[in-house]
Design brief:
- The structure is a single chain.
- Helix 1 crosses helix 9.
- The two termini are 12 Å apart.
- 46% of the residues lie in helices and 16% in strands.
- The protein is an alpha/beta fold and 217 residues long.
- It is globular, with a radius of gyration of 17 Å.
- The structure holds BIS(adenosine)-5'-pentaphosphate, magnesium ion and zinc ion.
- The site of BIS(adenosine)-5'-pentaphosphate has 35 residues, from helix 1, helix 2, helix 3, helix 6 and strand 6.
- BIS(adenosine)-5'-pentaphosphate binds next to helix 1, helix 2, helix 3, helix 6 and strand 6.
Length: 217
């Protein structure tokens, strides 16, 4: 069965980490608007040029830009591949747009998984985060170090990088944006009985197990 699921949660909740783990074995692809925007910034595309300063400030990029990115990705994806929406939708307008986009591509939403987390822990999670510069594998100074220091577990690369918006001040703005604009879309999905809540404070592997339980229904 082809599934389409949304992972919802504040910055640092583990959306990217869990998406990366869930794509293996479930025939799904991770669609992260944050990753798409960072790629656009790096490539200096027109979208990237518009998004750069907004992202560095921790504010939300326009609804139209991100919905167009998602629409284009789904258009390019085979109908047999499911989708994990990571960091999208983030506003009521995006939630409505996603319904239209899914309908257009003959898909339907199966689950909205809210990762519930304790806000104080998020700043530490985010400021300790880094990724492999070669393959993108995610790590953390305290919670997930490479097995051999300085060497990526996945690809053996030695270059690591940190995100431009992963400083404490920007994280606070990102959290405020989440509270003001993203958390209020939960009732939209609650009404349709699509929301499951998973404890995002548990160990990474336990969070995956809990999500897989939801997916099995
Ligand atoms: P985006 O890239 O989506 O960032 P975010 O929502 O702030 O979320 P993060 O990626 O920071 O956190 P995550 O939940 O993926 O956590 P992770 O798994 O890495 O967006 C960035 C910016 O782009 C936005 O601010 C905005 O400007 C723009 N943007 C993107 N989408 C947009 C949209 N739809 N509309 C408008 N603008 C948009 O985990 C964090 C760390 O914690 C990692 O190091 C990980 O190893 C560790 N960790 C994870 N889980 C656990 C655990 N259970 N226990 C211990 N450590 C853990
Ligand atoms: Mg992420
Ligand atoms: Zn790597």
């Amino acid at each position: 069965m082809v599934m389409n699921i949304i992972l919802l949660g504040p910055p640092g909740a583990g959306k990217g980490t869990q998406s990366g783990l869930l794509v293996t074995g479930h025939g799904m692809r991770q669609l992260s608007t944050g990753d798409m925007l960072r790629a656009a910034v790096k490539a200096q595309t027109p979208v990237g040029l518009r998004a750069k300063a907004v992202m560095e400030a921790g504010e939300l990029v326009s609804d139209e830009i991100v919905s167009d990115l998602i629409d284009a990705e789904l258009a390019a994806m085979g109908a047999e591949t499911g989708a994990i929406f990571d960091g999208y939708p983030r506003t009521q307008a995006q939630a409505v747009a996603l319904d239209d986009i899914l309908a257009k591509h003959g898909r339907q939403l199966d689950h909205v998984i809210e990762l519930t987390v304790d806000e104080d822990a998020l700043v530490e999670r985010i400021t300790g985060r880094f990724t492999c510069g070669t393959c993108g594998e995610g790590y953390h100074d305290r919670f997930k170090q490479p097995a051999v220091e300085g060497t990526c577990d996945k690809c053996g690369g030695h270059e690591f990088k940190r995100r431009a918006d992963d400083n404490e001040e920007t994280v606070r703005t990102r959290m405020a944006e989440y509270r003001a604009k993203t958390a209020p879309i939960l009732p939209y999905y609650d009404e349709r009985k699509l929301v499951s809540r998973v404890d995002g404070m548990a160990d990474i592997a336990l969070v995956t197990t809990a999500i897989e339980k939801v997916l099995r229904g």
